[in-house]
Design a protein that fits this description.
181 residues; alpha+beta; NADH Oxidase; two-stranded antiparallel sheet; 6 strands; binds flavin mononucleotide
Length: 181
């Protein structure tokens, strides 16, 4: 899947709206994510109103790009739906992270660019976002994604680091094991 290797965070966008068919495919990718006990606890809030986007940009010191993005997607967890018998754990954080990454990959596939903005567990950020957008208390905004047509091309980054791949036991290099060293 080549988009895994070409995706980068895109933080500046052309002033051009994202077409509805692209938005739908992007959301479909989010819904396809794996989730603990297959609970699929995601809910997505699309925001394209300029005043709302400006407000989101002001909610985090690292969300300035949202102000000029044509669209933001708040990836939220329904913490009620995520509940299952054998665990009190907040598995929904991982579920929503998987959905967020799927969405970012589909954004790349569509020729668009996006950036993941961490929201939960910064409770101040969660609180002000929830208040402005009328989220019920069991719905938690886990991540925000700003997206649009990229203003500039982006370059892939190769981050493979063989020294961080262990084999069988911690500290045994897979690379060395393979080469028989
Ligand atoms: C949990 C999480 C939170 C992030 N929060 C922000 C953020 O608030 N603002 C931002 O500009 N980028 C944010 N990023 C994007 C990272 O800065 C970016 O993924 C990282 O620098 C690697 O660059 P790349 O995405 O271009 O590969 C976040 C990424 C993750 C996974």
């Amino acid at each position: 899947m080549s988009v895994i290797f070409t995706r980068r965070s895109v933080r500046s966008y052309l002033p051009k709206p994202v077409e509805d068919d692209k938005i739908e495919r992007i959301l479909r990718a989010g819904f396809q994510a794996p989730s603990a006990h297959n609970k699929q606890p995601w809910e997505f809030l699309l925001v394209s109103d300029r005043e709302d986007l400006k407000a989101i940009a002001g909610m985090s010191p690292w969300a300035g790009m949202v102000e000029k993005a044509p669209l933001a997607i708040a990836c939220c967890a329904d913490t009620e739906r995520s509940k299952f018998d054998d665990s009190e754990g907040a598995w929904w954080v991982q579920d929503l992270s998987a959905a967020t990454e799927n969405i970012l990959l589909q954004i790349e596939e569509e020729g668009l660019g996006g950036v993941w903005l961490g929201w939960y567990p910064d409770m101040e950020r969660v609180k002000i976002f929830s208040a402005r957008f009328a989220l019920p208390s069991h719905i938690v905004p886990v991540s925000m994604i700003a997206l649009g047509y990229p203003a500039h091309p982006h370059r892939p980054a190769d981050r493979y680091d063989a020294s961080r791949v262990h084999y069988g036991r911690w500290g045994v290099s897979w690379e060395e094991s393979r080469s028989g060293a």
